[in-house]
Structure prediction request, 156 residues.
Amino acid sequence: MKQRQGQKGFTLIELMIVVAVIGVLSAVAIPQYQKYVAKAEVASALITLSGLKTNVEAFTVENGKFPTGSGTEEPENLGAPAEMDLGDISFTAQGTGVSGASGTIKFVFATSASNSVSSLISEKSFELTRNNSGTWDCQTSSSDGVDADLLPKNCK
Prediction:
């Protein structure tokens, strides 16, 4: 008599269960990964702006005013990278005369279609604001700002 051989391979049900488990894990992991990438891009932009604070402070002490972002006061002349894939940097002076030392350094993220910027932060912005006493504050605007949960803890 011939002995029966054992079954080899997987059943259709077993394969369907594996596919379902992978689908559930992907549904959770992909959004978390996208959020992680967006947080990393925001942190990179914040580091770039934070590096500019020293040059802006020196400019403010030497000239008695915040840089306007035009002419010799352009971001590139104050140490900002000329080309950034993530977005654009701009300076805005907020005061004149005695209060002329206040202003903002704003970072606006590029569109996700044109660059490799996360869709969670595409065309959104945040800024570092300097008051007259030289204190810096990191914040986001309510209309086009980066979501608060994507900003580093010291920037809300």
About this structure: The domain at 15-150 is CATH 3.30.700.10 (Glycoprotein, Type 4 Pilin). The mean pLDDT is 84.
